[in-house]
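INTERNAL TRANSFER SHEET
From: sequence group
To: structure group
Subject: GDP-fucose protein O-fucosyltransferase

Please process the attached sequence and return the structure record in the designated field. Keep the field labels unchanged so the import script can parse them.
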Amino acid sequence: MVRIQRRKLLASCLCMTATVFLMVTLQVVVELGKFERKKLKDSNVQDGHRDVEGEPKHLKPFPEKEALALAGRPKVDAGSYPIVLWWSPLTGETGRLGQCGADACFFTINRTFQHHPMTKAFLFYGTDFNIDSLPLPRKVHHDWALFHEESPKNNYKLFHKPVITLFNHTATFSRYSDLPLTTQYLEGVDVLKSLRYLVPLQSKNNLRQKLAPLVYVQSDCDPPSDRDSYVRELMAYIEVDSYGECLQNRDLPQQLKNPASMDADAFYRVIAQYKFILAFENAVCDDYITEKFWRPLKLGVVPVYYGSPTISDWLPSNRSAILVSEFSHPRELASFIRRLDYDDGLYETYVEWKLKGEISNQRLLTALREREWGVQDINQDNYIDTFECMVCRRVWANSRLQEQGLPPKQWKADVSHLHCPEPTLFTFSSPASPALRGRSLRELWLPSFQQSKKEAQALRWLVDRNQNFSSEEFWALVFKD
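Return from structure group:
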């Protein structure tokens, strides 16, 4: 009897186990089916092949909370939102519903959306902007937006009126662009006031036994600003420690020779030992100000600056940098630096603002306070996200105007949104000088700039024609007599 009961119990256990196994197997199959269907739908959205039943009469705004919820859903119907297409594959995103306040747009780099009825704007990254492929023909409701924070030497065509005025929206280093990026290399006020890397003046005076008063660190040689010619001449009148590949006369520690180490703590410590640093930009443009200027201010080193003609508008205080433009010749600049090097009281007037933590420039303070993006700050949007949202919000603003029967607002860039003068060589430099033989690159920037004017005019004519064109057509126009 006991044996029979044991057999019944064993049989019951086996049945229960089999039942559980079947249920688990069935659930796995169901979930796999859902996953495959989800992958198919997602790929349809990303590939731009989702069926579109027709162009919506109006865009559909939704509350902010709903936008957040939609952003988290795997299924996104791109045809329900304005499509903003990155023509330059800067973000690498094949499809994302981005929330911009109470509005949302579908952002993508997928060019199959070019002719989608809900595509409203095309975003271009300046360095990648070229004539090989443009979204033509351009429809009346297609806005073009330019993001360009880099040096003009990467794409001089953009800096001429015929091309910059092709764009409706801009984010450039110019204070006059729609989204100014002038302070893109400055984290905030706190890093300027910080004394973390500051080396006391007495210690710097002691270090002068083995270090020059000036330091220069550049590996991009002979750029449009012709900075190496100036520094070479300056070296004839004052000692300069040059660590980069340009005019190198001193070596960095092996671990700091990689360009990626330029923002390393150990590199900062090396530079912070000096009293002055030659902070020369690679191009001379209004408001084009890079880390070459902000870094020494953060480290407590006085920048000897050459670059933006508008730099005085961005100084932390009236006496925080030495401006090369105020000296007629490197000889005079060298004399002034030697004077500061030997006069502690005079030198300290250039770092007093930092020692006291006082920034008197209200323009700089306002720009940092009011900018909508952050630098190396996970609590703030970066400037690319902010640029995307600026365009998205403007698209929605025009949609709402049209719903009210009003004409859409016309945004258009002008020459102030991106301006750089013609490159020039320093007058004390001569291509025939023995010291400059083989330095042909510096002599090419002026003809390159002049040709870029012709390229800009040719490109504008072809874009205004509003038809696709070949590179052969473009270059034929550029070199037309």
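Handover comment: The chain is about 35% helix and 10% strand. Residues 192 and 298 are 5 Å apart (CA to CA).
Transfer complete.
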